[in-house]
């Protein structure tokens, strides 16, 4: 009986050892295959890298754990060209990937490395990012990707799932669209360096960004940001104002009409063309689609401008508004009831959108056109004047100019 138990124990021990060896072999094979794929994908791989295999942990720039898993690849400034293989995602133990200062091109492959803390891609020629970019790298502390010739892409939401992030540098990296809202930015609790200059970011910077205790260096210059400038601590190296469209060059509130129109732009998602035109602190200084009389906004005409989003109730803060023309866009949601309270309003044209709900209770004198939306909207033809011309030749010329710009 004792001999049988001893035999069983020996057999079990041998089985565990063989299983462990097999697992290690599979892991080593996967690592070797991934590194060999990288070598084959590079036009000029480092001299120690061989596409035929070998001990990947002995290759220049490769660091491995005691168990043989690749934890770091440092090929910065090696004059490399070529692409990166998708098998790079099999290196799940990566903690650092430094590829900056080369001429690598093509797609950045997906990374499945939950322990990755440093990712450096800047100074290459990558042309696309994976759909799940940053979603499998929650431990990231430093991300640099300046100067990548990417197609326009939005600010990466997944970066806010990296609470340990200290450095995010992506200047001149084709980031486009609205700057993240205050509630989202608040998740960057460890951020020290934020460099996003020379992009196509739009919208208003949350004031809370200036109050982030961890921040020491920020660059947002030469984009299309609007609204008030946040107040940063004197200890923060801030390069923010140059090349943007803030209402003032120093912290302080914007003009009331400017603030209202920026809320209108927010409803549309801060489109780039409005961000390029709606700059400074005077809405009557040639803003696209805006016509004034005696420094008061009287007409907002943005017809056929491919706008999406919703109609902001902040339009009701333009108390001198007479004509509102948003026809021929892709607007959704309802027409705000607050618009019915505008005392001088005579025309509302929202035809050919995707609006729903019911018309607000406009005065009988207001001419409302809402065809080609939800059938529930209908139209209301009052005695208001049905054109953008407010009766003066100056406004008529301005309207024609606005129309030409809108159709450009």
Automatic annotation (TrEMBL):
<protein>
    <submittedName>
        <fullName>Receptor-like kinase TMK3</fullName>
    </submittedName>
</protein>
<feature type="signal peptide">
    <location>
        <begin position="1"/>
        <end position="24"/>
    </location>
</feature>
<dbReference type="InterPro" id="IPR003591">
    <property type="entry name" value="Leu-rich_rpt_typical-subtyp"/>
</dbReference>
<dbReference type="InterPro" id="IPR052422">
    <property type="entry name" value="Auxin_Ser/Thr_Kinase"/>
</dbReference>
<keyword id="KW-0433">Leucine-rich repeat</keyword>
<keyword id="KW-0472">Membrane</keyword>
<feature type="compositionally biased region" description="Low complexity">
    <location>
        <begin position="376"/>
        <end position="408"/>
    </location>
</feature>
<dbReference type="GO" id="GO:0016020">
    <property type="term" value="C:membrane"/>
</dbReference>
<keyword id="KW-0677">Repeat</keyword>
<feature type="region of interest" description="Disordered">
    <location>
        <begin position="373"/>
        <end position="408"/>
    </location>
</feature>
<keyword id="KW-0732">Signal</keyword>
<dbReference type="Pfam" id="PF08263">
    <property type="entry name" value="LRRNT_2"/>
</dbReference>
<feature type="domain" description="Leucine-rich repeat-containing N-terminal plant-type">
    <location>
        <begin position="44"/>
        <end position="65"/>
    </location>
</feature>
<dbReference type="InterPro" id="IPR032675">
    <property type="entry name" value="LRR_dom_sf"/>
</dbReference>
<keyword id="KW-0325">Glycoprotein</keyword>
<feature type="domain" description="Leucine-rich repeat-containing N-terminal plant-type">
    <location>
        <begin position="255"/>
        <end position="293"/>
    </location>
</feature>
<keyword id="KW-1133">Transmembrane helix</keyword>
<keyword id="KW-0675">Receptor</keyword>
<keyword id="KW-0812">Transmembrane</keyword>
<dbReference type="GO" id="GO:0016301">
    <property type="term" value="F:kinase activity"/>
</dbReference>
<dbReference type="Pfam" id="PF00560">
    <property type="entry name" value="LRR_1"/>
</dbReference>
<dbReference type="Pfam" id="PF13855">
    <property type="entry name" value="LRR_8"/>
</dbReference>
<dbReference type="InterPro" id="IPR001611">
    <property type="entry name" value="Leu-rich_rpt"/>
</dbReference>
<dbReference type="InterPro" id="IPR013210">
    <property type="entry name" value="LRR_N_plant-typ"/>
</dbReference>
């Amino acid at each position: 009986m004792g001999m049988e138990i001893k035999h069983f124990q020996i057999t079990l021990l041998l089985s565990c050892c063989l299983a462990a060896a097999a697992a290690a072999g599979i892991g080593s094979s996967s690592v070797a295959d991934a590194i060999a794929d990288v070598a084959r994908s590079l036009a000029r791989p480092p001299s120690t890298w061989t596409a035929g295999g070998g001990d990947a942990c002995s290759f220049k720039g490769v660091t491995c754990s005691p168990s043989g898993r690749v934890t770091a690849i440092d090929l910065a400034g090696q004059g490399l060209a070529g692409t990166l293989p998708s098998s790079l995602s099999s290196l799940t133990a990566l903690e650092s990937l430094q590829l900056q200062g080369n001429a690598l091109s093509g797609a950045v492959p997906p990374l499945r490395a939950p322990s990755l803390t440093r990712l450096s891609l800047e100074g290459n020629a990558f042309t696309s990012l994976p759909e799940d970019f940053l979603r499998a790298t929650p431990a990231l502390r430093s991300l640099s990707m300046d100067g990548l010739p990417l197609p326009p892409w939005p600010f990466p939401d997944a970066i806010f799932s990296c609470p340990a992030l200290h450095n995010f540098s992506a200047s001149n990296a084709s980031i486009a669209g609205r700057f993240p809202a205050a509630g989202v930015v608040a998740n960057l609790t460890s951020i020290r360096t934020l460099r996003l200059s020379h992009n196509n970011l739009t919208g208003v910077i949350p004031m809370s960004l200036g109050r982030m205790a961890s921040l020491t260096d920020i660059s947002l210059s030469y984009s299309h940001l609007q609204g008030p400038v946040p107040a940063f601590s004197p200890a923060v190296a801030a390069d923010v104002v140059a090349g943007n469209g803030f209402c003032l060059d120093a912290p302080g509130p914007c003009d009331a009409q400017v603030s209202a129109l920026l809320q209108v732009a927010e409803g549309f998602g801060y489109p780039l063309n409005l961000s390029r035109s709606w700059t400074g602190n005077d809405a009557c200084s040639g803003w696209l689609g805006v016509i004034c009389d005696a420094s008061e906004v009287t007409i907002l005409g943005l017809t056929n401008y491919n706008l999406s989003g919703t109609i902001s109730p902040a339009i009701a803060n333009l108390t001198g508004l007479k004509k509102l023309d948003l026809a021929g866009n892709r607007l959704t949601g309802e027409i705000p009831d607050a618009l019915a309270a505008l005392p001088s309003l005579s025309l509302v044209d929202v035809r050919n959108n995707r609006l729903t709900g019911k018309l607000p209770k406009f005065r009988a004198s207001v001419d409302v056109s809402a065809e080609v939306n939800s059938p529930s909207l209908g139209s209301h033809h009052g005695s208001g004047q049905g054109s953008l011309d407010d009766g003066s030749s100056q406004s008529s010329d301005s309207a024609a100019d606005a129309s030409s710009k809108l159709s450009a």
